Amino acid sequence: MVRLQKYLAECGVASRRESETLILDGRVRVNGVVAAIGQTVEPESDKIEVDGVPVAQQRLVYIVLNKPRGVVTTAKDTHGRKTVLDLVAGAGSRVFPVGRLDMDVDGARLLTNDGDRASRLMHPKLDLEKTDRAWISGAMTPETAARLAKGVDLEDGPTAPAKVNIIQQARDATFIRLTLHEGRKREVKRMCEAVGHPVKTLRRVEFGGINVSGMREGEWRHLSHDEIESLRRHAGL
After folding, report:
1. Cα 37 from Cα 25, distance rounded (Å)
2. pLDDT below 50 — which residues of the chain?
3. Closest CA to 222 of 110, 86, 83, 107
4. Catalytic site residue 25?
5. What is the CA radius of gyration of the chain?
6. What is the pLDDT of residue 120?
7. Domain that includes residue 182, residue range
């Protein structure tokens, strides 16, 4: 037996929290009866439906996409712009993106139909490393890099300590590598702005130990067994 909201998440219907909302809204039925929060089900024998559509456990899919700039990271876009789902149309299953990545940022983007694990990976308290490379305006000094690494004050509070390395310097720009453990909205851009070095270009090179090394822009691949197990450990599953 398994809790209904957990089963719905495992089937890729929605995250566990979103599945609870579906249940509370009366949109889920078990053997023809409106389901209740906390209810357990036997997937092998119970008939489970969401909005009248039968739910069946599907093969879990985990994908990393090398997202190009200009592609929207939501599942749908009201302005008709290309989304990450358009790029992974051949995945063989309906997947959704994990976490945030702005339209003008390229690089590693995870997608999955595992709603339960995706929800945990996006939790703000999860200590999941995200590594970005950025060209920033101006010549950053080692002292400023150390200040950035220590943490800076933003409007939503101080940032956690980070790893910051200066890779290359030009006359009016600096190429840096940052590794963060947080997932706030536009965090890298706001951090760099806070120390006087606005971001020119930004690329995510690694997420939770998963990278897009050797992949062309717009290319995607399935995660390896070891990568999936690593995510499972990070998510506490």
Report:
1. 10
2. none
3. 110
4. no
5. 20
6. 67
7. 130-207
Tokens standing for residue 43: 């997937």
Structure token digits, residue 164: 């910051």
Distance CA 1, CA 30 (A): 13
Q: Which of 25, 102, 116, 226 is catalytic?
A: 102
* CATH code for the domain of 148: 3.30.70.1560
Identity of residue 236: G
| CATH for 79 | 3.30.70.580
Residue 15 · residue 120 · CB < 8 Å: no
Look up the pTM and report it. 0.75
Among candidate residues 16, 34, 54, the one where a domain is terminated = 54
SS (H, E, C) the chain: CEEHHHHHHHCCCCCHHHHHHHHHCCCEEECCEECCCCCEECCCCCCEEECCEECCCCCCCEEEEEECCCCECCCCCCCCCCEHHHHCHHHCCCCEECCCCCCCCEEEEEEECCHHHHHHHCCCCCCCCEEEEEEEECCCCHHHHHHHHHCCEECCEECCCCEEEEEEECCCEEEEEEEECCCCCCHHHHHHHHCCCCEEEEEEEEECCEECCCCCCCCEEECCHHHHHHHHHHHCC
pLDDT for 211 equals 92
Residue reference for tokens 């906390």? 38
pLDDT of 237 reads 53
- Burial group, residue 127, by CB count within 10 angstroms (0-12, 13-18, 19+): exposed
Phi and psi at residue 16, in whole multiples of 5°?
A: -60, -45
